């Protein structure tokens, strides 16, 4: 299984730091090209590898850490998404519900990536918290996971655990997943909830 992070903003780099901390190789890409990422990834060079966007999208698991409107540009970069697991870290804050057909934003992202198995995760915490050590005093920081494909949810949850967090399933996107979906200018109840579980 190989991984890529699409997006080199504060959230993308926070997640990259967790891959490096966990000694898990990951590629990272943006629309500006790998040269723009060399300085930002230098301290993680053993594990975080800048790539061209098209190459990074060949990964088995793709972490989409871009502003919500940018998902359309990413979707247009690749013709075939069949079988990919895409972890959606976007938040549609400020996007009118009419532009989302009154659906959860992750459902819109999923439609743009036909054939992919979309999982919502890592979006409920700010980058500064995502960058922190995930295990504190024997407790693991919670990451909520939701998606419509059980196998993809399990795979994403396993990655969450490997990165040192504690995955908590919310079920399907249109059900429990609504608890981590921004709705226009209203945050869902679980967004910004920094919770921990005992490490077992």
TrEMBL record:
Keywords: Oxidoreductase
Keyword set includes Oxidoreductase: yes
Gene Ontology molecular function terms on file: oxidoreductase activity
Pfam families: F420_oxidored
Origin: domain of life: Bacteria
The keyword Signal belongs to this UniProt entry's keyword annotation: no
Domain named Pyrroline-5-carboxylate reductase catalytic N-terminal: residues: 4-91
PANTHER family referenced in this protein's UniProt entry, alphabetically: DUDULIN-RELATED
Record protein name field: NADP oxidoreductase coenzyme
Organism field: Izhakiella australiensis
Lineage: Bacteria, Pseudomonadati, Pseudomonadota, Gammaproteobacteria, Enterobacterales
């Amino acid at each position: 299984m190989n991984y890529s992070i699409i997006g080199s903003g504060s959230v993308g780099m926070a997640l990259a730091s967790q891959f490096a901390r966990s000694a898990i190789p990951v590629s990272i890409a943006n629309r500006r090209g790998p040269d723009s990422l060399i300085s930002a990834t230098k301290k993680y060079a053993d594990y975080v590898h800048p790539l061209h966007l098209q190459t990074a999208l060949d990964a088995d698991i793709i972490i989409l850490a871009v502003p919500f409107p940018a998902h359309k540009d990413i979707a247009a970069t690749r013709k075939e998404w069949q079988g990919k697991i895409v972890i959606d870290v976007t938040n549609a804050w400020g996007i009118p519900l009419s532009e989302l057909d009154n659906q959860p934003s992750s459902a819109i992202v999923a439609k743009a990536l036909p054939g992919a198995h979309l999982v919502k995760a890592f979006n409920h915490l700010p980058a500064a918290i995502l960058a922190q050590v995930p295990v504190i005093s024997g407790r693991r920081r919670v990451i909520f996971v939701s998606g419509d494909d059980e196998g993809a949810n399990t795979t994403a949850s396993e990655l969450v655990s490997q990165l040192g967090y504690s995955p908590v399933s919310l079920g399907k996107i249109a059900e429990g997943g609504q608890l981590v979906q921004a709705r226009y200018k209203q945050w869902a109840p679980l967004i910004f909830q920094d919770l921990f579980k005992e490490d077992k």
